[in-house]
Automatic annotation (TrEMBL):
Compositionally biased tracts (Basic and acidic residues): 154-170
Molecular function in Gene Ontology: phosphatidylcholine binding; phosphatidylcholine transporter activity; phosphatidylinositol binding; phosphatidylinositol transfer activity
Protein name (record): Phosphatidylinositol transfer protein alpha isoform
Residues covered by the Phosphatidylinositol transfer protein N-terminal domain: 1-247
Naturally occurring in which organism (per UniProt): Sphaeroforma arctica JP610
Length: 268
């Protein structure tokens, strides 16, 4: 089992982040869907009185990943097994997401993501209230959306925070040490736990999962910032309307368009 805590500082308020995150999930889902692969949205509905999370928005999605995993995974995985099911409870500013592969790996594989969104610059050391044993296992990864290097295959000038300025807010471009200079500022603290029980492959697959998570969170939050002028000023009512249309668009893309988005990287 591996535990990583990704700390992603953003030049937005916590309330702004809620809107920007939901908008960017829709856009990223469309960009990653096509040729049979990508996102399938099964449910997106409010929930209330949950014993752990209170009230918020529940989503159930399937991720079709045949084109997005390393070659060695494709070689080992039976046909049709590269589908993850995701349940998420968005009780913002806390969110819980669980991904599994019930059709093949069943209880031998899961990815658990717990996220707190706090109005600080990544300075809270144990917002997830981990035990001493968990803290020893936890790896903290600070993600700098502006200065971290990204693979050439992921780089787009229009999604580079060092080059993009928001016309609506006047924020950016972001330079070295921007986290201590911006106002507002907030941090997404994502605690990711991964377990893959398969003798001989456990360490390798868990490392691939964590590397993929870091890549995903870095790219996604670079986009969230660079798309600020598309989402800033939208209300939650606006977001729910857009989500309904996005589901129809994504279903059509998955069935009718060519493969799109991130491709699996080999770790050889």
């Amino acid at each position: 089992m591996l535990i990583s805590e990704y700390r992603i500082v953003m030049p937005v308020s916590v309330d702004e982040y809620q809107v920007g995150q939901l908008f960017s999930v829709m856009e990223a889902s469309k960009n990653e869907t096509g040729g049979g692969d990508g996102v399938e949205i099964i449910k997106n509905e409010p929930f209330e009185n949950h014993k752990d999370y209170g009230s918020g928005q529940y989503t159930f999605k399937k991720y079709h990943l045949a084109s997005k995993v390393p070659k060695f995974v494709k070689m080992l995985a039976p046909e049709g097994s590269l589908v993850l099911e995701e349940e998420a409870w968005n009780a913002f500013p806390y969110c819980k997401t669980v991904l599994k592969n019930p059709s093949y790996m069943k209880d031998n594989f899961f990815i658990d993501v717990s996220t707190h969104h706090l109005a600080d610059a990544g300075t809270t050391e144990n917002c997830h209230k981990l035990s001493g044993k968990q803290l020893k296992l936890r790896k903290v990864v600070n993600i700098d959306i502006a200065m971290d290097k990204v693979p050439a295959s992921d780089y787009k000038k229009e999604e580079d925070p060092t080059k993009v300025k928001s016309e609506k807010t006047g924020r950016g471009p972001l330079g070295k040490g921007w986290q201590t200079k911006v106002d507002p500022v907030m941090t997404s603290y994502k605690l990711v736990t991964c377990e893959f029980k398969w003798w001989g492959l456990q360490n390798r697959v868990e490392k691939v999962v964590m590397d993929s998570n870091e890549r995903l969170h870095r790219n996604f939050h670079r986009q969230l910032y660079c798309w600020m002028d598309k989402w800033h000023g939208l209300s939650m009512k606006d977001i729910r309307k857009l989500e309904a249309q996005a589901k129809a668009d994504i279903d059509k893309l998955r069935k009718e368009s060519e493969l799109r988005g991130t491709k699996g990287e080999d770790d050889e």
